[in-house]
UniProtKB/TrEMBL annotation:
Family: Belongs to the cytochrome P450 family.
Naturally occurring in which organism (per UniProt): Escallonia rubra
Gene Ontology MF annotations: heme binding; iron ion binding; monooxygenase activity; oxidoreductase activity, acting on paired donors, with incorporation or reduction of molecular oxygen
Protein name from the UniProt record: Flavonoid 3',5'-hydroxylase
Cofactor names: heme
Length: 320
C-alpha cells in the first residue's frame, strides 16, 4: 500500500499516471453497501462506469441538471430556515447537524426519488433502500458546512467580515440567492479554506494500480493500493496555501474525481451563505466549542455543533 502525503507525488499518481490508478480496490464496504462494488464510485473503469458517469451528469449532477433542480434547494432551505427561526424565537439552541441532515437528504431525495426522505422533523417513517448516493451527497456536504460554521463561531472576526460582505452585496431585506454566490468572494474563500482544513474524505477514496510503474524513483508494483492524504497535504506547514500553485483536491482528481464535485460546492456555498446571512451565531452560554474530529462516512465533528442564533432578516425571509 502507498500513502501519498506530498503534493508533487499526488499530482504524479492522480494526473500523470491517472489511467493506471483509475480502479478501486475491493473492500467489504463496497461489496455490501455499493451493490457488490457495481455503483459509480467503486465499479471498475470501463464502459459501464462511463455510462453511469454520463447519466449522473446528464440528469443529476451536471450544470443543466443543477439549474433544473434549483427550486428544490430553495424550497428545502426555506423549510430549514423556518424551523431554525422558530428555535431562535424560543431561545433554544439549534442542533445544526440534525437540521442540515434533514435539509440535504430532502434535497437529494427529491432529485433522485422525487420525494422527501424526511416528511417532518424526527420522522423515521420514510426509509429507503436506495441510499447509495445519499451517503455521498449528504455526509460530505453536511460535514463541510458544519465545520465551516464551527470555524466561524470560533473566529468571530471572520463571521463579522462575512456578514459585512453579504450586507453589502445582498442587503438586509432578503435571503441569499444562488445567483449571489459569484459576488461573494470572501464566502467562497471560507468554503475553500474549510475544504483544506477539514476535507470530508481525508484519504480520498482508495485506488489500485492496474500495472507496475515508477513514481519519483520508486517502483510501484501492480495491484498496489493508493491513498492520498489530503488532510495532511492541506495542513503541511511547508506548503503555503496562499500561493498560486496550491491546488485543493478534496474531491479527488483525474478520471475518478468525484462526480458530485459541482453539486457539493453549490450545496456548501449556498447553504452556508444562507445560514450566515440569515442569523447571528454564538455558542450556548456556559459551553465550549469542541473541535475534535471523528471518522465515519466523512470526517465529522466528534461533538455535533449546537448553537444559539439570532435572526438578521425580516420575518418573511424565513418563510418556506
Amino acid at each position: 500500500m502507498v500513502v501519498v502525503s506530498a503534493p508533487d507525488a499526488a499530482c504524479a499518481f492522480l494526473k500523470t499516471l491517472d489511467i493506471n490508478f483509475s480502479n478501486r480496490p475491493s473492500n467489504a464496504g463496497a461489496t455490501h453497501l455499493a451493490y457488490n462494488a457495481q455503483d459509480m464510485a467503486f465499479i471498475k473503469h470501463g464502459p459501464r462506469w462511463k455510462l453511469l458517469r454520463k447519466l449522473s451528469n446528464l440528469h443529476m449532477l451536471g450544470g443543466k441538471a443543477l439549474n433544473d433542480w434549483a427550486h428544490v434547494r430553495v424550497s428545502e432551505l426555506g423549510h430549514m430556515l423556518q424551523a431554525m427561526h422558530e428555535s431562535s424565537i424560543q431561545n433554544e439552541p439549534v442542533a445544526v447537524t440534525e437540521m442540515l441532515n434533514y435539509a440535504m437528504a430532502n434535497m437529494i431525495g427529491q432529485v433522485m426519488l422525487s420525494k422527501c426522505v424526511f416528511a417532518t422533523k424526527g420522522s423515521e417513517s420514510n426509509l429507503f433502500k436506495d441510499m447509495n448516493m445519499f451517503t455521498a451527497g449528504t455526509d460530505t456536504s453536511l460535514s463541510t458546512t458544519e465545520w465551516a460554521l464551527a470555524e466561524m463561531i470560533k473566529n468571530p472576526s471572520i463571521l463579522k467580515r462575512a456578514h459585512e460582505e453579504m450586507d453589502l452585496v445582498i442587503g438586509p431585506d432578503r435571503r441569499l440567492l444562488e445567483s449571489d454566490l459569484p459576488k461573494l468572494p470572501y464566502l467562497q474563500a471560507i468554503c475553500k479554506e474549510t475544504f483544506r482544513l477539514h476535507p470530508p474524505t481525508p484519504l480520498n477514496l482508495p485506488r489500485v494500480s492496474t500495472e507496475a510503474c515508477q513514481v519519483n524513483g520508486y517502483h510501484i508494483p501492480k495491484n498496489t493500493r493508493l491513498s492520498v492524504n489530503v488532510w495532511g497535504i492541506g495542513r503541511d506547514p511547508e506548503i503555503d496555501p496562499r500561493g498560486n500553485d496550491f491546488e485543493l483536491t478534496p474531491f479527488g482528481a483525474g478520471r475518478r474525481i468525484c462526480a458530485g464535485t459541482r453539486m457539493g460546492i453549490v450545496l456548501v456555498e449556498y447553504i452556508l451563505g444562507t445560514l450566515v446571512h440569515s442569523f447571528d451565531w454564538r455558542l450556548p452560554e456556559g459551553t465550549n466549542l469542541n473541535m475534535d474530529e471523528t471518522f465515519g462516512q466523512a470526517l465529522r465533528k466528534a461533538v455535533p455543533l449546537s448553537a444559539m442564533i439570532t435572526a438578521r432578516l425580516p420575518l418573511n425571509a424565513y418563510a418556506p
